Amino acid sequence: MSTTTTSGPGSTSGPGTEPESGSGSGRGAAARRGPGRAREARRAGKQGLWGWVFVSPMVLVLGLFLALPVGMALWVSLLNWDGQSNPFSGAADFVGLDNYRHLFADGGLTRTLFMTSLRNNLYYVLLVVPLQTVLALGLALAVNRRRLRGKGVFRTAFYFPSVTSSIAVSTVFLFLFQSSGAVNGLLKWVGLQGPSWFTDARGLVWVVLGWFGLVDPGSPPAALAGHGVLGLSWWEWLSGPSVAMCTIIFLVVWTTSGTFMLMFLAALQDIPEAQLESARIDGAGRWQTLRHVILPALRPVLFLVLTLGLIGTWQVFDQVYVMSQGQPANTTLTPAFLSYSLSFKDAQYGTGAAISFVLLAIILLMTGVQRLALRERDGRRRLRRGRSAR
Amino acid sequence: MRRTTLPLAVCGLSLSLLATACSSGFDKSEGPAQDSSGKQQLKMLIATSGNAETSAVKAAAAAWAKATGNSVTVDIAQNIDQQLGQSFAGSNPPDVFYTSADQFSTYAKGGSLYAYGGKLKDRDAYSPALTRAFTYDDTLYCAPKDQSTLGLAVNTALWKKAGLTDADHPKTWDDLEAVAKKLTKDGVTGLSVNADYNQLGAFFKQSGSWLTSPDQKKMTAGDKANVAALTYVKKLLTEGVLKFPKDLDSGWGGEAFGKGKAAMTIEGNWLAGAMRKDFPDTAYKVVPLPAGPGGKGTMAFTNCWGIAAKSKHQAAAVDLVSELTSDGNQLKFAKTVGVMPSKKTLLETYKQQNPDSAAWADGTAAAQLPVNAPGMRQVMAQFNTSLAQLASSDPAKLLADLQKNGESVLGGSGR
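ok -> structure tokens follow
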């Protein structure tokens, strides 16, 4: 990337690379001093050792409860293990990457289910992450206004869903979205016939296109339904989230936006009043202030919210477990739920573990892409600003 | 880099020490040393249908403990498949536990069950269909706990309101369609059945076929008779006289039936307990399922008393199970829990004691057990998923998919 060279070392190191660059500059400092270098290094080494001694309780705890189980799960994902023996004793067959191959290459039921779950979750992420981020930002801006009365009440009300147990919220939504429930009652009131939410497996894309008479959701065209890739037809790939999945999307957007609102709110209150005021004096309108002053100041928090959102949405489990168990027609099946049911219901722990590692790879990849996207724009702006200054 | 090597090595070493300490917890031994003391402490894990069942099992276990000088702790599982899976993996399973028919083959194949069938004195008293369900590699592993079959439950008030009499109880598929049509009016649906092959499977049996061969080595889902059965079910759905419970805002057939949203449902013995508990005011009657072109047919369900291969108290556990499956206890459980005795010798007595459940007891003669070959759960779950979309799909296609998915499990590597 040519942009990084002009923007200097400081801006290239994101949160993840900071410790590394820190130790790098430390080493550089030791090298520059020359004569006292060896003594300095020895002292630094001793200090480092003591440092490790001090953090060792935490390292042990983290290692025991995080690193070790992850390593064990990785090992299990390479086994054909039925969960009824010790996976580390050699009783279970080592099958190498077979479990991963079942997920991607072999045209069986497992692959179809896995691909279906990936499709569902992808549409879920594509809708939930932007919606919850925008909603959270909107709420934060709303409750941050100085002239708003009863701020505390609103902040509590918006944050409330986040502190409520997801199981309880899911159960309430089950009742709200029954075919004769409150939501359909409201829709009826304005003259709309609501769907029977939890049994409606139609894809949203086809439903909406159906409204305009472009496709008939009941009879997919042969060009799309007849061909496909990875065990699903194009009709299924392109269907979008099902109506049933939409209820889970509503629910999650509603519950998580409160948490993210809190993060945005904290960041908003960190923006110096002088900065906003000078923008106002420069004649910036409300929209311009938001676009050119507030949003750039919120970028680190935006990154945090998007990253947490991505991670959380790819791992969605409890709502699915409570509300739909993957039904109808597997349109609310997610990789996390599939991993659970393959492991505990079908005793295919190896495949279940493999799914969770594929999920990990997806999350890492998407977070990386998102980080790159946010950083690159940052670099370009600095570049432009640098040029105009020259 | 150098200065971090030593501490890292120390950390790594201690981690691996911890790891070995952990894995010593998984004790891998073929036959665990048996406890032969007079006072043995047994652990039992059950999945209960409610307070009645919990207290009945606890009372029976306590009586045995008192008579033998041992002690039994009865634990209630929230999710027994998951809890058993965890305990097997951790090599610390309960001594005695409920084993569902669909998990049985997985456990037997994995070597988690102690095969005590040969030690049962009254093994010939059990219904052969049930012992077959718990036989793996020609060995009877465990004693069937009880059984349930499906019957047709009719709401007597709605039945009368539709101008029907006892003589109208359906005998054939056409009868069933006719009465369902008559009952469907004023916001009531004639029939509501779970979109589940455990219930709808009865129609395959009545059609004269079944989804697999009797030994579960071959799939026969694509049979013409099966297609005919599913086409019949789809016809009821399109006519609107059959609705799945979810379309009636209910979790299962019994709920739609109890709320009076459906006038008939196809459910098993557990319906009696649920009706008593949740819908005591709904008057109903259970009659035999209609016969199809292939004769009579229903589904049967059973559990067994599993004993862990890794239990240290196997002899005592077998003794406990013998007591729990004694004639007296089976009839007592039948009375309090609502299930039927697993011994065919007790069915007549059961019918006398529970005349309302006679239709269920009579069903045992033509009952089909669900598919339970290893690895088939996922395939059947997928079939259930597709059954929920039956109204908008082609029955032959659903069964062809099932045939294909099933063949890859039964004919292949079993994964």
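Strands of chain A lie at 79-80, 93-94, 228-229, 232-233.
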